[in-house]
Amino acid sequence: MNVKKQFKEGLITQNPVLVQLLGMCSTMAITTTLFNGIGMGISVTVILTCCNIVISLLRKVIPSKIRIAAYVVVIAGFVTIVDLLIQAYLPDLSSSLGVFIPLIVVNCIILGRAEAFSSKNGVAASALDGIFQGIGYTWVLVVMSVVREFLGSGSFGGGILNGGAGIQIFPSEYGAMLLVLPFGGFLMLGSLIALVQWALRRSEEKKNQEVAK
């Protein structure tokens, strides 16, 4: 088990959103405030980690022919638990995220990690994979939320700071309102993907040049 490698993969080289291109629908839809980004990121991280652990424990028991259906049942169970907890203790977050919490059941990140990793590895490695992939997903949401909220409405920390109103840095009428619309999500996500792909390519080229020397 290589913890350092798993951490690097989750955050950068195999980032679920920017490299694997999974879970992009919710990423673009809910990243309008910091509250939404953090809430969704933590929810997915908790569900992903718990599902990875359970699926890893059951990987030798689940018949291969029904493994996907079994994974979906496990995921749906944890999604239901998290959804009910959010409704009970964070009703504002539940209202803000709406249907996107229940839709975590079909989030390709969780099902993808179940099939690609936890069904083939031990409990400890699967738990770390869930945590690191979740952190990688969360930081993308947070960056997108902060940029879209700041440039789109001139505020920061919506839903968290200043009684939920956020800190108004400049008048909202001067903001690029396009960024808080769906198109802004496409634009922001595309820019991040391009930036990370460029950085990974540069890093690979540099390694190849060092080997050539």
How many strands, what sense, and barrel or not for the largest sheet?
2 strands, antiparallel
Task: Report the C-alpha radius of gyration, rounded.
Answer: 19 Å
Gap between N and C termini, in Å?
Answer: 31 Å
Biggest sheet: strand arrangement: 1-2
Element order, helices and strands?
HHHHHHHEEH
Total strand count, please? 2
Whole-number average pLDDT? 90
- Extract low-pLDDT stretches: none
Shape: flat
Count the DSSP helices: 8
Please identify the structural class as seen in this structure. mainly alpha
**Can you tell me the number of structural domains?**
1
The proportion of strand residues reads under 5%
Helix content range: 55-70%
Tell me what the structure shows.
This protein is mainly alpha-helical and 213 residues long. The protein has one domain. The chain has eight helices and two strands; from the N terminus they run αααααααββα. It has helices at residues 3-13, 24-30, 34-58, 67-89, 91-97, 108-118, 123-153, 182-212; strands at residues 155-156, 167-168. A two-stranded antiparallel ribbon has the order 1-2. Helix 3 packs parallel to helix 6 (108-118). The two termini are 31 Å apart.
Helices and strands in order, then pairings?
Blueprint: H1 3-13, H2 24-30, H3 34-58, H4 67-89, H5 91-97, H6 108-118, H7 123-153, E1 155-156, E2 167-168, H8 182-212
Antiparallel strand pairs: 1-2
Helix pairs in contact: 1-7, 2-8, 3-4, 3-6, 3-7, 4-5, 4-6, 6-7, 7-8
